[in-house]
Known about the structure:
Elements: E1 2-7, E2 21-26, E3 29-33, H1 39-45, E4 53-57, H2 63-66, H3 69-78, E5 85-90, H4 93-103, E6 112-117, E7 124-127, E8 131-137, E9 145-151, E10 157-158, H5 160-165, H6 173-177, E11 182-183, E12 189-190, H7 192-195, E13 196-197, E14 204-208, H8 218-221, E15 226-230, H9 241-244, H10 249-258, E16 263-267, H11 277-284, E17 290-292, E18 298-300
Parallel strand pairs: 3-4, 4-5, 5-6, 14-15, 15-16, 16-17
Antiparallel strand pairs: 1-2, 1-18, 2-3, 7-8, 8-9, 9-14, 10-13, 11-12
Helix pairs in contact: 10-11
Amino acid sequence: MKLTILGCYSATPQVNTNPTAQIIEIKNHTFLIDCGEGTQVELRRNKVKFSRVKHIFISHLHGDHCFGLAGLISTFNLLTRETDLHIYAPKGLKEVITMQMKLSNSWTNYQLIFHELTSTKSELIYEDDKVEVHTIPLDHRVYTNGFLFKEKLGDRKLDMNAVLNADIDIAYYRKLKQGADVPDNEGNTVKNSSVTKDPKPAKSYAFCSDTAYNEAVIPIINNVDVLYHESTFLEKNEALTKPTKHSTAKQAATIAKKANVGTLILGHYSTRYDDLSAFKTEAKTVFENVELARDGKVFSFD
Ligand SMILES: [Zn+2]
């Protein structure tokens, strides 16, 4: 599982900072989360192949999370893309994008498939045999979802020495991988656990931005390996979190602690702060394993 931060600042793009966008690579998928202005440039800078992006997840319709989408869709078209593009976003974005394409008479040659989100409860929005994606309803000034990406547990691993010693026909290997007990060549039952090993643990990643401090997310993100939680402000500016419905670094860390996550990554910083290390220091007073997102930073979790 690999996370590439394309942009991790709030509000407006600046010379050296980008609004929210990130790529999570999980089980051979390249999922784009949010698409702030300039995302297509950052995809190029970070050498993410455009053709790999088949699913885009948009948290909410504030511009710093979606103003890059119309441009990206248009560029895909200019590059003669043929692959379907799925967009999971709050209801309304389809109307915006469709209007843009209609007025510029630039319909895509590829299929653009919108999955409009309206539920205020967590729901499964994507699933295949390797991975599933759920929404995480957040508390912000407009309808907003975070996203939970979960690997599915893979097959059990054959312990080949033990399998050969147990004299099991190759026709049963598939059943062994699925966890079944099987007969040996003399008809005796072989316990699955004596000839197989546990699969690699399934990884999970939760993206929570933008949101006020919201304990309702805790049961949804409980025990995730990695949590990206917005920390727009430091505690000294906590008064600003109320009208804006954002969080402080300390509040993000409190959610991480209560949800027992593995690693907390902070981001969505207000551009009023020059020194990001204060975010880490503040969060660490509550939760130990804290990382700071930075534009262009890559986190690998294996
Ligand atoms: Zn917002």
